[in-house]
Write a structure and sequence with these properties.
By secondary structure, the chain is mainly β. It has one helix at 38-47; strands at residues 12-15, 18-21, 48-56, 58-59, 67-71, 74-78, 84-91, 105-106, 114-117, 125-128, 134-140, 142-147, 150-155, 158-162, 168-174, 189-193, 196-200, 206-212, 214-215, 223-227, 230-234, 240-246, 248-249, 256-261, 264-269, 274-280, 282-283, 291-295, 298-302, 308-314, 316-317, 325-329, 332-336, 342-348, 350-351, 358-363, 366-372. The protein has a four-stranded antiparallel sheet. Strands 4-5-6-7 form a four-stranded antiparallel sheet, with no helix packed on it. A four-stranded antiparallel sheet has the order 8-9-10-11, with no helix packed on it. The protein has one helix and 37 strands. It folds into two domains: 1-64 and 250-377, no CATH class; 66-107 and 112-148 and 150-183, no CATH class. β27 and β28 (291-295) form a beta hairpin.
């Protein structure tokens, strides 16, 4: 994240033969509306807890109890009180990841470990614990997050999977263009052979042969795949469950998936039936029973019948988490409840959806975190 843009990973999307990410871009900074009612102010005080004051140059969502932050040209990790657990010692530098001033590449914690590559892409990567200790030596060309006990790493130009001791469980044998490979999800992982993608199990055996132009990880038993400029879904055995007929596909969430057909987005169920007809300019997957949709340049929310519950009125939005969703109006971000009412008034230059109880907010040139004090349901 940075002060100019926020990449909110709401849903993976198959588009044009490449794996893309649905993102929300922060609006241009404008003055907040002065029309703040007493009711809104009360709601703000009731729900807003500035858990960690804005003080960081950049932040990332909390993961595994810690958040990566940047301060004074260095990256480190804080806990939910804002205390540095791993001091800011990793270098921040040019975005290209190369040269003498290349930044250290630091991931996010997952399953107790974080991948770190010192010296950018020309350096070696390994894994650190939450104490900041190296537990898997820096020896690989590329590293990715641990998922389901394994992590994809590249060695000798090929990708394999290691366990948390650093031992190769699946020897390096797969190709990759950018990432070493994809994390395991529901027992299977996307890997590349040549220019095609398939899925392997945890022994390294291909369950789905590499024959697709692009893939998205399994979610709720189905995986989105692309072939000849159309996408659809396969089951865990690689059998086509929903024919390849859409322009774009997203993973299933809460039993539905957003798909694009003839330039408009709608939602299908796991049988491939169109539950909500394609009618939206953009769409994000369901979360807590609601999905963000865009019509005529404004964002609102629908329920699983397609009924608009919150009319399109926001410049940007994201998914609901613990009853609140970030939303931008008049150039400022706040947080709305499921009726569309601002529970935290628009006052931030950027805001993200909640992760592990905290949401990142950007104000006056610095990042901090707010907590959600709404009662859990």
């Amino acid at each position: 994240m940075n002060k100019k843009s926020i990449h909110s990973l709401s849903a993976s999307v198959l588009s044009g033969g490449f794996l893309l990410l649905a993102i929300s871009l922060c609006p241009q900074t404008q003055k907040a509306s002065a029309d703040v009612t007493d009711e809104q102010m009360f709601a703000t005080k009731a729900t807003l807890n500035l858990a960690i004051a804005p003080q960081f140059d950049d932040v990332y969502p909390f993961s595994d109890g810690l958040a990566k932050v940047e301060k004074e040209g260095k990256k480190g990790f804080i806990d939910k009180t804002g205390k540095f657990i791993i001091p800011p010692k990793f270098r921040v530098g040019p975005d290209n990841g190369e040269g003498e001033e290349a930044p250290d590449i630091v991931g996010s914690f997952s399953e107790g470990l974080v991948d770190v590559q010192l010296g950018g892409f020309t350096g070696k990567c390994g894994y650190f614990s939450k104490t900041g200790k190296v537990v898997i030596p820096l020896q690989f060309e590329r590293c990715s997050v641990f998922s389901e006990g394994l992590a994809a790493v590249r060695q000798g130009g090929k990708t394999g999977y290691i366990d948390k001791t650093g031992k190769f469980i699946i020897p390096p044998q797969f190709d990759a263009q950018i990432l070493p490979a994809m994390p395991f999800s529901e027992g299977l992982a996307e890997v590349q052979q040549g220019k095609k993608w398939g899925f392997i199990d945890k022994t390294g055996k291909f369950i789905v042969p590499p024959k697709f132009e692009a893939t998205v990880a399994y979610s709720q038993g189905l995986a989105a795949v692309r072939q000849v400029n159309k996408c659809g879904y396969i089951d865990s055995n690689g059998k086509v469950a929903i024919p390849l007929q859409f322009n774009d596909c997203t993973p299933f969430s809460e039993g539905l998936a957003a798909v694009q057909k003839q330039g408009k987005w709608g939602y299908i169920d796991k049988a491939g039936k169109m539950i909500i007809s394609p009618q939206f300019d953009q769409a994000i997957n369901f979360s807590e029973g609601l999905a963000a949709i865009n019509q005529a340049g404004k964002w609102g929310y629908i329920d699983k019948t397609g009924k608009i519950l919150i009319s399109p009125q926001f410049e940007e939005t994201d998914q609901f988490v613990q009853g609140l969703a970030p939303a931008a109006q008049d150039g400022k971000w706040g947080f709305i409840d499921k009726t569309g009412k601002f529970m935290i008034t628009p006052q931030f230059d950027v805001a993200t959806k909640f992760s592990e109880g905290l949401a990142a907010v950007y104000q006056d040139g610095k990042w901090g975190f707010v907590a959600n004090n709404l009662p859990l349901k």
